[in-house]
């Protein structure tokens, strides 16, 4: 299991889809600014805005962003603190959507090689009109989304109290986890993702 390192937080994003009784989640790590960051509630309130703006730009109206939460560790071995901002923001891309088991796949890139230094988001609410044969997303949709992803990433990392989006690492048996790896970019994969239990 991946632990949250001291001075870091797990960012959790909650979605709901009309017709699906269960919530969906996607996550990322955050390195917080050393010293005296703002209160955690102030921090999560500020983080909600760039995430909500990105969700509205990408998803269909039947998928709503429900909450943004932080789990934060300030003492080694202690239980994480948790705060959240609950507010509903619907996607604004009208038109038909693909089935609930289809999502956008967003790749977390870093400056370090190796599989463990890459990550991904699954983001629900795929608009049918932007997906062609064999699940390939149109070039225009990819370009627009990558621009909006950069806006969201900058919005998160420019929030007072946040240093970087990061990838956490699991500790090997009997060992210590490697230091989190900073994310340098977020990019949409050109092909949609399908899962049996997407985002659970």
Instruction: Give the strand content.
Output: 35-45%
Helix content: 10-25%
Going by helix content, strand content and strand pairing, the class is alpha+beta
Shape by Cα distribution: globular
General description of the model:
By secondary structure, the protein is α+β, with helices and mostly antiparallel strands. It has a domain at 8-95 and 138-183. 19% of the residues lie in helices and 36% in strands. The chain contains two helices and nine strands; from the N terminus they run ββαββββαβββ. The chain has helices spanning 40-58, 139-157; strands at 8-17, 24-32, 63-73, 81-90, 102-110, 119-124, 162-167, 181-188, 193-194. Strands 1, 2, 3, 4, 5, 6, 7, 8 and 9 form a nine-stranded antiparallel beta sheet that branches. The chain is globular and about 50 Å long. The mean pLDDT is 89.
Question: In short, what is this structure?
Answer:
The chain is α+β, with helices and mostly antiparallel strands and 200 residues long. The protein contains 2 helices and 9 strands. It has a domain of 134 residues.
Please describe the topology of this protein.
Elements: E1 8-17, E2 24-32, H1 40-58, E3 63-73, E4 81-90, E5 102-110, E6 119-124, H2 139-157, E7 162-167, E8 181-188, E9 193-194
Antiparallel strand pairs: 1-2, 1-3, 2-7, 3-4, 5-6, 5-8, 5-9, 7-8
Helix pairs in contact: 1-2
Keywords:
200 residues; nine-stranded antiparallel β-sheet; globular
């Amino acid at each position: 299991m991946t632990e949250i390192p001291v001075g870091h937080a797990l960012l959790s994003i909650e979605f709901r889809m009309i017709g699906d009784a269960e919530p969906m989640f996607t996550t990322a790590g955050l390195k917080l600014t050393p010293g005296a960051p703002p209160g955690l509630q102030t921090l999560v309130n500020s983080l909600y805005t760039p995430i909500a703006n990105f969700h509205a730009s990408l998803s269909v109206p039947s998928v709503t962003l429900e909450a943004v939460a932080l789990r934060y560790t300030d003492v080694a071995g202690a239980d994480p603190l948790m705060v959240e901002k609950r507010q509903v923001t619907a996607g604004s891309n009208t038109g038909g959507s693909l089935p609930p088991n289809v999502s956008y796949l967003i790749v977390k890139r870093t400056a370090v090689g190796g599989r463990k230094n890459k990550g991904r988001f699954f983001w629900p609410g795929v608009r049918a009109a932007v997906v062609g044969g064999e699940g390939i997303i149109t070039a225009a949709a990819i370009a627009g989304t990558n621009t909006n992803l950069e806006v969201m990433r900058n919005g998160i990392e420019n929030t007072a109290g946040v240093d970087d989006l990061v990838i956490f690492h699991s500790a090997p048996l009997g060992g210590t986890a490697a230091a989190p790896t900073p994310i340098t970019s977020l990019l949409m994969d050109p092909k949609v993702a399908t899962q049996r239990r997407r985002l659970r």
